[in-house]
Amino acid sequence: MISPTRLLHPIRRILGVTVATLGLAAGAHAGNDQPLALVEFASFDCPHCQAMDKHHSSIQAAVEAAGLEYRYAPLPSHTGLERAWRERAFYASRSIPGVANDVRKAFITAGETGVPLKDYDDVLAHLQLHVPQVRWNEFADDHISDPSSVEAIERAARLAGRAGLREYPAFVAVSRSEVKLLSLSGDVAERAEAVIKYLENL
């Protein structure tokens, strides 16, 4: 499992009592403490995260059956935020309806097959090949290169820090008053099954 500790150490300094991230608020008080969303933290380079992707549709179906929102939150493991072009592209792609899942799959596949996507131009070329319905060169200037794509990673990293994330992949249940890291053990298939059972028991 890949540890995101290097990324989270500098970001933990800016953690507040309330963490607003991924369109959700954590830290507010509410009478109903039921989870509102399940957040999956991952790295595109992590073999365990790539293996967990095989269970993505089953987990997403369980999330929907439980009436929760699902968020995929990739964090960079080998580069600083400014040069985290894959992650920046993923977060930016969420502004295009129906595209983020294709972008996620394209980057997971690149990680599995060892395709190096370190540079901005490499990322755009990969997306143009695997997600051709978007004109990535036009989209990139206004969205991927925009500082808001770095801010999206920072928000995800703050939530990961709040949850006490130590390794990838990890699943966090977010309610109005709590950010809860699910305690999982075993191999990837066992962890996926544990997440599904957690959702079924809500």
TrEMBL record:
Lineage: Bacteria, Pseudomonadati, Pseudomonadota, Gammaproteobacteria, Oceanospirillales
Protein name in the entry: Uncharacterized protein
InterPro entries xrefs: Thioredoxin-like_sf
Annotated keywords: Signal
Source organism: Vreelandella sulfidaeris
Signal peptide feature range: 1-30
Superkingdom classification of source: Bacteria
Keyword Signal carried by entry: yes
